[in-house]
């Protein structure tokens, strides 16, 4: 069984009354989800997430590793993939997308993001992120 690992983050605005979540439309598959990508070399999960965010969006973020969720699925036969998601905060909202990887992007409130995201696994991560933010800010 082949193992793959990607890392990324649920990016949320800080310093706004209602948080906005960043979703990107991935070139590979055309699905709406969070910035993420494969671990390269000896990168840590955190380094991978930060690199992928920078490559795909050019955003500078503050990574919150207290939020760490894993999605496991099989993208193809005899392959298991783990995607590690952290929370990330940014004051920036201007996206400079990586055209080879990203078709579009959207800053959305929770309800809009929940409606836009393509896969149920990602809806679960989005809900967990919202719950985490609510608990953290209470």
UniProtKB/TrEMBL annotation:
The keyword Nucleotide-binding applies. It holds the Pfam family NUDIX. Residues 2-130 form the Nudix hydrolase domain. The keyword Nucleus does not apply. Keywords: Hydrolase, Nucleotide-binding. PROSITE patterns: NUDIX, NUDIX_BOX. It comes from the Bacteria. Belongs to the Nudix hydrolase family. This is Bis(5'-nucleosyl)-tetraphosphatase [asymmetrical].
């Amino acid at each position: 069984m082949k193992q793959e690992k990607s890392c990324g983050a649920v990016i949320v605005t800080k310093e706004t009354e209602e948080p906005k979540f960043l979703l990107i439309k991935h070139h590979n598959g055309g699905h709406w989800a969070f910035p993420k990508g494969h671990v390269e070399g000896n990168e840590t999960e955190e380094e991978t997430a930060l690199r992928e965010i920078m490559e795909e969006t050019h955003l500078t973020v503050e990574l919150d590793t207290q939020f760490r969720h894993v999605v496991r699925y099989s993208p193809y036969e005899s392959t298991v993939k783990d995607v590690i998601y952290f929370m990330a905060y940014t004051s920036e909202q201007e996206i400079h997308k990586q055209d080879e990887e990203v078709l579009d992007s959207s800053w959305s409130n929770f309800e809009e993001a929940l409606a836009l995201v393509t896969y149920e696994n990602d809806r679960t991560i989005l809900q967990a992120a919202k719950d985490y933010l609510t608990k953290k800010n209470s």
